[in-house]
Amino acid sequence: MNRTPYILLSLVLLLIGAGVLSCKKETTASNSSNPNVLPPLTHEGKNTFGCKVNGEVWVAYAPFTVGGAVAITGEFNSGAGHLEATLRTETKHEVIKLFFKDVYSTGMYNFFLVSNTKTGFVYFLDPPDCSIYYHDTSNVGTMNITNLDHLSRIMSGTFEMDLVNSSCPGDTIKIREGRFDWRY
């Protein structure tokens, strides 16, 4: 039995597969998952989250790994109106946390704080004293829900907030132009 055709076919398929797997399209379009470009304002449940942290673009992003980090995690209990989300970027080793209550429809909401100990931002690579920032109780920040579709389980909107750390007086993290399109 001549195995040459099978070996040649296997080699051709292997080369084609390697070529397809090695192709990587670079893009800077705002609708990509590029962690350097803010995602567009959409209402489609695309699981996007981005903002500007002290003027620099920050996009929730975690490269695909089996069993690895997830860029957006959280829970929205529509019956109780509670929203909690954790957003991470593995490229910068940072996390942003959001907390809201009494969210039942579209509209403007204030961040939910019971004290000044609600974490809003964490730098994992900074010294411990200045690595955690908390919601500023004098300016808790707002979220504007522009789409809340309970049937499709999609929530979209914009937000902004200021975060402080009492160990680092005068140092405020200003989060602006925040936007999200999340399937809960």
Structure overview:
With 184 residues, this protein is mainly beta. 10% of the residues lie in helices and 41% in strands. The protein has one domain (42-183). It has one helix at 4-22; strands spanning 48-53, 56-59, 72-77, 82-89, 94-100, 107-110, 119-123, 132-135, 142-149, 154-164, 172-183. Strands 1, 2, 3, 4, 5, 6, 7, 8, 9, 10 and 11 form an 11-stranded antiparallel β-sheet that branches. Strand 10 and strand 11 form a beta hairpin.
Question: What is the H/E order?
Answer: HEEEEEEEEEEE
How many runs of DSSP E, i.e. beta strands? Answer: 11
Helix percentage? 10-25%
Overall pLDDT: 78
Short description:
The protein has 184 residues and is mainly beta.
Keywords:
184 residues; mainly beta; eleven-stranded antiparallel β-sheet; 11 strands; 10% helix
Layout of strands and helices, then pairs:
Blueprint: H1 4-22, E1 48-53, E2 56-59, E3 72-77, E4 82-89, E5 94-100, E6 107-110, E7 119-123, E8 132-135, E9 142-149, E10 154-164, E11 172-183
Antiparallel strand pairs: 1-2, 1-11, 3-4, 4-5, 5-7, 6-9, 7-8, 8-10, 9-10, 10-11
